[in-house]
Each structure stands twice: as structure tokens, then as C-alpha cells.
Design a protein that fits this description.
single chain, about 475 residues, mainly beta, six-stranded mixed sheet, 4 helices
Amino acid sequence: MKKRIKELAAFLLAVCMAFGSVGATGYAATEGEETDPVSEEETDGLNAEEEAEISAEGGPYYVVYNYNYPASSGLTEKNKKVELPADAESFTIGENSGRENVAGYEFINWGGYTSNVYTDDNSVDLNQFITDEIEVASGTDTAYLEANWSQIITVTVDGEETTPVLAGNSISAPVVSDPKYTVEWKLNGSDFSYAFTPGHSKTGHVTELSTPNAYNITKGNPVAAFVSYWTPVNGKLIQIVNYTGSSLSFDSAAVDIGASYLVGIVSEDLAELSSGKTSDGKYRIQVSADSVPTDAAGYNSYDGKDNVTYYQITLEPDDLQRIVSLTFQGGSDVDFKGSDGTSYGNAYTVADTDVADGATIESIFNGTGISAERSGYSLSRWKYTDENGTELDPSKPLPEDCTEIICTPVWSATINFKTNYPEEWDSGPSLPSRTEEDGGSISLELLDGDERYQFLGWAASPDAAAPEYT
């Protein structure tokens, strides 16, 4: 267009020169007459400066934004024509385009006549744009830019929206890591391992999902819902169902008869299940590894995860083991020791000791291997009482309602008697030593005197000035 304006200006100038007086005030001079110059304001012609200015500026120029809205958008406006700035060195593509957003679709770019594509915020050189999109395209004064769209695939991971994917692109499994678990994924309810590109097609300037696929990600259902499924690396997540006939307790959580309880991740030998007891404390759970079913029961919420593989164990009365606690009590100078010589001080408890069917109190005690020491005393025997203070016969089985055996050592001491007869007595009857239990009482004999000496009593110390026991 710049060239055509320059040629037109040259043509007008040539006409003026050929025909002389065509201007408003110009005239042809006769021979010998002087002529007055024609002012620029009074001529319709273009001087050289004006010609150069028009040739340099050109224009005006326009850009038409064709919206190409997806058919489902309901938008009817097709395009908008915008005049390009005349004096700027650059301009922003998409400025004042009037393009609207379309729900479910993403605007990709503006496609030009050449292979160039532009985004809404592209700042481009004005002259280069005119060259590429107007002069090269058709030599007209207008550039046509086509809006390109792509359908949006909504992606969720365990119910939370994440970065969407556009039709025509690959969908990959999320990347997560937890050293305690392995993870598997389902995509829209079907097992998913790696990556998948749903079928798609492009109609005009709109790329959309098309053909059905294994994950049902289609134009009418542009959703990729990932759900994670976890399996513990070590051990198994165990849920118990209580059919023992007694209410159970796990870490203060009550499990009624017929109720279920998610214990947690348990090692292969199920040792952790032994922490479960009946609410009265008389029994604990005792099951073997072969009690775990081969097949998982399903998935359960655990450790902040919605779907963790778990196994279910149904507990029967035979899965209960009778237990009792043994508490050792002694005075401040008593030291309880284990079978390996470990010192436990003057108080110690052996909790949750297994009780075999028909086991006596004494056999249960002997199973602990606990002994007692006290300086100056010999152990005479053990005394056993229940938690209510009732003394237990060591030769009898553990009472059904007993949950604690209190074991108290009974000490004995040897008492030697020194008669201390007067020296002038030839002799007197001696008394034999006696061994008595600590805390008991004994009867002390009265010694005979004569007309000169009277027996006063007994004292524990040889230096006593007066009797302590009379």
C-alpha cells in the first residue's frame, strides 16, 4: 500500500506540471512577465516532504481477530476488527481483541497467515507484523488472526484438582513417595500404570476429545480422576472382629462383642496383637501368623491415606490367653533379682504373665525366676495375695477373678540366747537357738534365781544396763 500511495502522489504532480494552471491560484506567465510563486496552502498538489511522509507512514492497517469459539460454547460473535496503531514501533497482539474465555476449553494462541503464532501478550514489531501478515499474505490492509482452542481435561488426584491436561497431550500417573508403602493407581476406576493419550480430533481450530477409550475420557466426560491405593512395605494392616465372647480393649479403645477394630500395621508374626486384652484384664489375644487370610479384605483409611490394603481376622474364644500380673513388694532393705542376676530394687512387676490351664499360684510364681535378698535375714517363704488383699493358697489354681498376684517375701532370723549366769554359779541350764519369722512374736523363758540373785529379763545388747523384755 505504501507503493501505491507514492505512485498516486507522483501522478498528481505530473498532471499539474503538464497542464499548468490547475491549482486554485496558479497561472501561466506570458513571455516577459514575472510569475508569483504558488503557496503550498493554495495547491492540491503534494510537495516532496509530504510525499515522503505519506510514503513512510502508509496505512491505516487493521487486524481481524477470528474467535473460532467451540460450538458448545453458545457464543455467537465471530470476530472483531481492530485498527493497528499508526505511530508505534510495536503493539501487543490480542490487545482489544474482545475474545472471551470458554468454560472447558483453553485458548492456545492466534495463528497468522504465515507459520507464526501469537499469544495475547506478545509484543511484536509493527512493521514486521505488517510485512508478515498483510503484505506477504495478500497485499491488503488487513491481517487475519485465527484463535486456536483445546478442550481441557480436568485431572484430580485423590479428589484434589491438580494441573489440567489439554486434549492431544499425554496423561501420566502422579509421582508420590512414601518409604513405608508401595502405591498403585486407578484412573477413572481402572488400573493405571504409566501414561495414556486419549483419542482426539481437530475440527477447524478446535482440538477436542473424540473416541471412547478404556478410561472413559471423552468429549462428554473430560475428566481424569486418579485414586491411590497403598500397601505397607513391612507387615500388614490388620482389622479384628471380636467374637471372643468378651469385650476387648486395644490401647484404651473398647471393642464390643461383634464389633470390628483397625489395629494398625502388624508384623508378620502378629506379635502386636498381644497388646489387645479383654476389658477386665484377664485375657490377652494370642493368634498365630496362619490366622491371617490369604486374600485381603479390601481397603481402609489409615495413616492419612484413604485406601490402604487390609486383612481381617475374626477372633474366637480360643484366641484368648489367660494372663495375670505379678507384683513384688519388699521393705526398703530388700533387693529383688532376676534369674540373670539383674537387680530390680525393692519393688518390681511382671505384667501379663501367661497362665497355663490349671496352673497353681506357686508354678506361676516360679515361672518368673524372681528371688529376694535381705542382709541379716534368710528367706523363709513367699506370701501371695490378690489385688483385694485376700491371701492365696500357693498350691491352688489361679482364681478366675484374679488379675494380680502380690508376692511378698517372708523373712526369718535366728535368735541365740546367752543366759549370763553369775560367775559364782557353777553352771545353769542353757537355752537352744530359735529361728523365727520376721514380724512374728516369741515367748521368752523366765530363768530361775536364788536367794542372792533374781532374773530381771532379756536385752538385745550385751551392754544393756536394764532389761528390754521382761
